[in-house]
Amino acid sequence: MVILVLNCGSSSAKYQVYDWNHKKVLSVGVVERIGLEYSTIEQKSSGKETYSARFSSPTHKEAIELVLKMICDPKYGVINNLSEIGAIGHRVLHGGEVFKQSALVDENTLKILKDLIPLGPLHMPANIMGIEACMALLPNVPNAIVMDTAFHQTMDSEAFMYALPKEWYTKYNVRRYGFHGTSHLYCSKRASVLLGKKAKDTNVVIAHIGNGASVSAVKNGICIDTSMGLTPLEGLVMGTRSGDMDPAIMPYIMKNTNLTASEMDTILNKKSGLFGICGLTDRRDVEEAMNKGNKDAELAFKMEARRIKKYIGSYMFLLGKVDALVFTAGVGEFGSTMREMATMGLEEFGIVLDKKANALARSRNGEFLISSKKSKIKVFVIPTDEELVITEDAVALMKGTYKDHMHFKYSFASPKFVNKARQEGLREQVKKNPQLKKIIAENSWK
Asked: For the residues 251-272, what does the mean pLDDT come to?
């Protein structure tokens, strides 16, 4: 049996084919430019040539039709026919207050998701189109939805409420929801394993730093606070998003520039953050420009690091006792300079980096301990694996064994877990750089 995982964005569809019986990834791919003059597909399959092509994809339905065709293709595919697909797992942006955990899809589920579109107008329609396309093309295959917001639904009201007129919450659902929940779930479970503790006894701060970025405070295995809010705009300085700001800036600028609400929303989400300060979004480009003396790039880099540090510090105080700080996602996994700057000055609070270990830890194939022996709090780099969470949720829902994350046994929450998709890559990297072996986290998959 294989599990198909889909992540449908506004103009893209990422996918993964997972062999459940042998616990390994067979294929990954992405369709981009959906709805434009032409679309592109790239598929990488185990033991096969990479497939790439242009084609016409007016909607997500045509995109998914091609995905299903290519994963069965004799030359580039990985399965013989579509009957091998046991379930389809979908990443969904927003579950509101309705979906506090993953769920199977039926007509009522679809209706509720459509009612939630106003909370995620850019991503939710695409998520739903992907689900509906799969239901039409593979009517007998169960579809599971895994919400970005679900992991954060354990927050208490004093954490998720805003100090705004209460009727905005009761009438319009204005509250903090949080995002990247699937990543925060995975990394918090892996941190417990690396610490040799049970999730219910573990307190961690998770820093998911990518183009979009968020921090969460996880106490006794559950989320008690997170940096993103009603939308993914709040919180950290991101690639193109502003993060926290004085809301009075909006009417002030709108009055002086005659911007509409829609134009302001676009600027805050797509033209702010690092891009707004220095015109760059990729942290590698920002760091390179900073090292060449670009003052705007230096300012942007320092602003991001400072904001991350503020959230780490505040969440440490919320948790009281902290077992570990975890960095994950693209920048968190590769950005050694950002990790160093974001933790600089936290030594008095128990976080001391090993600079050599931090510089070495630049890989998506391994889990690394980058804190010094003097550090009271462990600092880990843990590559996230949202697709694996979605896969395991989909299988459990299909079999009727799914429970909330504190009462469900994920494979990656076991010390015996082996990530086969990354194991060989880690071995190759250790061969090239034996020093990596010294910082591979204890209890990590080898």
From this structure: 96
